[in-house]
Specification:
By secondary structure, the protein is α/β, with parallel strands linked by helices. Helix content is about 45%, strand content about 15%. The strands form two sheets. It has a seven-stranded parallel sheet with strand order 3-2-1-4-5-6-7. A six-stranded parallel sheet has the order 10-9-8-11-12-13, with helices on both faces. The longest helix is centred in the N-terminal third of the chain and has 23 residues.
Length: about 375
């Protein structure tokens, strides 16, 4: 099939784009892909065509509006100049009116309705973020009525979309995100003590990893920092992996105000988070809202016990044997931190082993097989 694929950023570090890139890399020999994107780390330039969409990436609301205007123009010009007709058009969420497939990783209307007030950012970012969510929510309400297939990464998000948009009916397919299971095994030669020492961590510290590209309020980082301040255990440390300096600056200040600046290690943006998971004793992400949480699956694949809220996707792997389940509130997180820091290393390892076992069905092979079957269904129509 000739497939036109629309996305903003198709790179290994972008959540949806990374999934698209995996599909492109593995299925380019079976289908003819043309990618329409602002940014694309093309894994196979000889097989995959890239047509750049010339719009700004920031702010997000401007990206959303500009992409809606410019992408269709670029697409139709490309089809006219090359005299090409595509068999299938795939886009991200509510980006195009003429898509056959929508790859949906978020329900903006539900988030605004139920979670925005609990996890909204502060300052000018609040206005920009709300506008971006609102534009997406309005577009969802209109464009999801069109007879396109919807692909989501979790059963929870699929259920949520049906509740918000009952007319979707049976048009939703669930394809879980891919986990590089073998790649997350800690190698025997990894020097964990040295890596921890370079971050200022002591051998007997209880270290938790918190990993996020951004959206720290939605992922309850403020509550995590406040909870640590109430636990009064100087050996409890948290690695904050992700975020630009501008994004983490308020949290540095918050940690200092709580008197725990030495317990929070800001590691910045990282292209590869594996070594930070390998240096940790556990993983924490008590998020208000997720639709899959790839990093929670990666932490489980790295055999880390989880301290997580039971959000979409996470609820498919986390249970009381491999995780401490919390609410995204300061008191609930503080109780979980006390419990975790009081566990011995054997109990933590047992929890981590069970977490790793829980993610085994979510390997990359399963992901690719599901997409192959999905595309084959279109090819036979």
């Amino acid at each position: 099939m000739r497939i036109a694929l629309f996305d903003y950023r198709i790179t290994s570090t972008n959540p949806i784009g990374g999934c698209h890139r995996r599909v492109l890399e593995q299925l380019a020999n079976e289908h003819q892909f043309t990618v329409f994107a602002v940014e694309f780390a093309n894994p196979m330039p000889d097989r995959i065509k890239w047509v750049r969409i010339p719009v700004p990436m920031r702010p997000l609301a401007l990206l959303f509006i500009a992409f809606h205007i410019v992408a269709p123009i670029v697409y139709y010009l490309h089809c006219w100049r090359r005299s090409v007709k595509f068999d299938l058009i795939q886009c991200v969420e509510s980006n195009l009116a003429f898509a056959d497939v929508r790859y949906v990783h978020f329900c903006h209307r539900r988030y605004l309705k139920s979670f925005w007030r609990l996890s909204r950012p502060s300052g000018f970012r609040r206005i920009g973020r709300w506008l971006d969510y609102k534009l997406h929510a309005v577009a969802e309400s209109w464009l999801y009525r069109r007879p396109a297939r919807i692909v989501t990464p979790s059963a929870g998000l699929a259920r949520e979309l049906r509740e918000e948009y009952p007319y979707l009916g049976g048009r939703i397919d669930v394809i879980s995100n891919p986990i590089d299971l073998g790649n997350l095994d800690c190698p025997p030669d990894f020097d964990r003590p040295r890596g921890r020492a370079l971050l200022g961590l002591k051998r007997d510290d209880c270290v938790l990893a918190f990993v996020a590209l951004g959206h720290f309020e939605r992922k309850a980082l403020p509550s995590v920092i406040d909870a640590i301040g109430h636990v009064h255990d100087s050996s409890l440390k948290v690695l904050i992996v992700g975020g630009t300096e501008g994004q983490v600056r308020p949290y540095r200040q918050r940690a200092a105000e709580n008197g725990i600046a030495e317990q929070i290690v800001f590691c910045g943006m990282q292209s590869d988070v594996k070594r930070f998971l390998w240096m940790a004793d556990g993983f924490i992400l008590p998020s208000h809202y997720e639709t899959f949480s790839l990093v929670a699956y990666e932490a489980a694949a790295a055999a880390l016990p989880l301290i997580v809220s039971k959000v979409h996707g996470v609820d498919e792997i986390a249970n009381e044997s491999n995780a401490i389940l919390v609410e995204p509130r300061e008191d609930s997180i503080a109780d979980a931190l006390r419990r975790f820091s009081g566990m011995n290393s054997l109990a933590r390892k047992r929890m981590g082993a069970l977490a790793r076992e829980a993610v085994q069905p979510f390997g990359a092979e399963t992901f690719l097989a599901a997409w192959c079957k999905f595309y084959d269904g279109f090819a036979m129509v």
